[in-house]
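Sanity check

After download, print the first record. It should look like this:
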Amino acid sequence: MRPVTELSKTDIKNIKLIAFDSDGVLVKKGTKIIESLGFYSRQTNTIDPQVITKLNELKEHFHIVINSGRSSLYLTQIYQDILWDNITLISEIGVFLTGGGFMVQTDYLDQYELETTTLIRQKLLKLIGNPDVAGFEPKQFLTTLHCHLAVPQVEEIVKNSDPQNRFYCWWNQEAYDINSKKFTKSQALNKLLLLKNLLPENVVTVGNAINDADLAGEKSINISTDSQNLQTDDYFAEGEHLGGLAVINHLLSLI
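Expected structure tokens:
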């Protein structure tokens, strides 16, 4: 990988769309969840006003995608100051596309997937009370269980509940994300490209984690803001928190 500062104006001459991960790229990581019988509390970081200002500048030149595991409602709330002109949200690791006046589910869940999701959630609910388990983050189809550290029972529950091996279970150092393997950030982005009549070579992706790995296509320009956790064949911008701001600043300098 090369430093993103080596990305040139010529390199981005065909770029029409820039897809950013949210947590750890545009907004600081960190979610505090407390869940018990009859009580639920969630605290997350807010986005730096400087990032909002820069994104508003950038969307004058490119279509901006926020591609996240968060819910569409959460993303709408924290990015409300840049919505909806020239912006699309991809939420729940590829389940939903939300843009100006529309919300699209990128694929459907069949009966097996619906029943398996319900079964997994019912079993995971029994872990609430474990001191290593914080609680669930509310989402439609993606199951996200926040934990203070890795909890082996979670992966065992998913494996035993999914005999057809159609679900993933990813630990991201903060939470477990669990859903059908058909839903990915790249699958949702490709659907958006079809809707907008764009090609992979018109895209820059910016990510930092395991659920961003599939975004790094051969024809797109791919930038990692955490080279230890996400390797690409293209560029890196160091900075676990707000590495996306360095990318935005460099892109704006090329315009």
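If your output differs, re-run the checksum step. Summary of this record's structure: Helices lie at 49-58, 72-78, 111-125, 152-161, 185-196, 243-254.
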